[in-house]
Amino acid sequence: MEPNIDKKTLETIEKLFRLSESSNENEANVAMKKAMSLLAQHNLSQSQFNNIKKAEEEIGISFVQEGKNFITWRSILFNSICQSHFCKVIAFSSTGKYGIIGKTVNRDAVVMSYRYLCHVIETESINALLKYKTNEHGKKFCNSFKIGMSQRIASRLQESQKTIQSETNALVKVYDGCEIDNLRFLQRKFGTLKTSNLKVSLNSDNGYYRGLVAGESVSLTPVKEIN
Fold it and tell me: At 97, phi and psi to the nearest 5?
């Protein structure tokens, strides 16, 4: 069972362990006994405590500025990329920022993939508008195209992850471990958060369909850094 322990108690235990290294033998013994007592109260072993602290040191948050409003297709894309890279997402509506919660290497990969795929989708939507010479309003066509393309990319990322997980239990354990560490970090840093479902509105069925088709063939791996 996952240990339930708050940040303040963790910090107290950590301070007690530091005091247990004191040159004052009596002070060190008292601190160690208090630390072990707190661990026992929370059904934690010392190794479990060390693992929690290690995980906390590795998990962090990075920010991506989106502007005043979150755009639907970018939200779909961002959420799917984060999930495929073992990260969690938090949206700060007051500042128009996304927060990426996860290990540094995973957060960096999310940012790179997101920048790359945003660039690809923007470019493909303009190319599609010129190619199919639709009589529809260009903005409506392109927006629906981007939603379709981002949804197909999201599905492919999810399908790829499921395929890999079905082939090795190791990845399942990695995913589960990251999920627990990320949720623990979120809870301790931000407390209880509200969840909301993304509402998708389409203005062009043609654009949406073209986007789905385009999302089927695009490479999901950044080929170069996008400036």
Answer: -115, 145
What dihedral do alpha carbons 216, 220, 224, 227 form, nearest 10°?
A: 80
pLDDT classification of 105: cutoffs 50, 70, 90: confident
Output the CA–CA distances (angstroms, integers) from residue 8 to 29, 30, 102, in the order listed.
22, 20, 21
Question: What is the reported pLDDT for 149?
Answer: 97
Report if residue 77 sits inside a domain.
yes
Predicted pLDDT of residue 213: 96
pTM of the model: 0.69
Flag whether 226 is in a domain: no
DSSP string, 187-199: HHHH-S----PPP
- Give yes or no: residues 185 and 77 share one domain: yes
Single out the residue of 89, 127, 129 nearest to residue 218, CA to CA.
Answer: 127
Written as one letter, the residue type at 51 is N
pLDDT over threshold 60, residue 65: yes
State the DSSP string of 81-121.
HHHHTT-EEEEETTTTEEEEEEEHHHHHHHHHHHHHHHHHH
For residue 61, give the nearest of 92, 36, 84 by alpha carbon. Answer: 92
Q: How many domains does the chain have?
A: 2
pLDDT at 156 over 90: yes
- Name the token pair of 111: 């940012």
Q: Which residues pair with 61 in a beta bridge?
A: 101
